[in-house]
Design goal:
Length: 70
Amino acid sequence: MAIIVNLDVMLARRKMASKDLAEAVGITAQNLSILKTGKAKAIRFSTLEAICRMLDCQPGDILEYSPGEP
């Protein structure tokens, strides 16, 4: 997919565990894992907003467009 999810990078920078973020955002650890691995087909703006609030970052820090990716 041409959209790359850098959520694991932001989690490492903030030294936060996935399960802690999932709990704070109000989604399951499984759904966060699907998002982290780039297998998600969509993300709600409310979820993206909550993630950005918890990680103190911008959406562009988490999502990246790469035209060369299949």
